[in-house]
Design goal:
Helix content is about 45%, strand content about 15%. The protein has helices spanning about 5-25, 25-30, 35-50, 60-80, 85-100, 120-125, 140-150; strands spanning about 105-110, 140, 160-165, 200-205, 210-215, 215-220.
Length: about 220
Amino acid sequence: MYDKEYCYNSYIPILIVKNVANRLSLSYMKDELTEQQAQAILKALDETISTGPWEESNFLRVIGKNLREIRDNFAKQLGGDVRGQEKSKTESNLANRIALRAGQQEVFIALYSTEGHNIQAWERILANLPRQMISRPIYADEKDVQYSIKAKENKVNEAYVAIYIDQNDLLTVPSDKIPMDKHGRPLLSLKDRSIHLDNIIRFVHLSGVYRYSKGRLVKNSHAD
């Protein structure tokens, strides 16, 4: 168990980085930060995330989750729209590797609503997701859920959510028993009560990419 001094000393740079990340706009970073300085901040965030005691308590889990969000937001500002979808994929893979070190895994849950244009309808679906998980296709690979949605006729009624789950909540299934969607893409099976809404990373819909905060979907200002 980490002592109080370690946690205190670890928390100080988190507060500093959060303050910096929240205040830096893309233009400010280009004018005031060299590429070397920006990469040093990014590296410090990555190291803190990967080595910190983020699974020791609920309090530290919240800090770890917030720190991952800070890191991702900073990386998005740093890259702007130059690196586009390739950058987003790289960031997602990095975040997934960090989560794996903490015993978590990023998965992708396909969603459907007859009121696809109504963002409040999607919010209701997400609110009920922990209790209605059994009927949802769950993918390990984001490309698979994206392929499934692209094959649908009315895409506005389709969406998916990226979320962290504990690896222990993944059910082990024999290779010949792995469920598949109708396109032959493998699906995951999870234990009951393995979905926690505070672990949602992003909600992806035809209208854009959203973050989930306090039961509400907030559209990202920058395209992922």
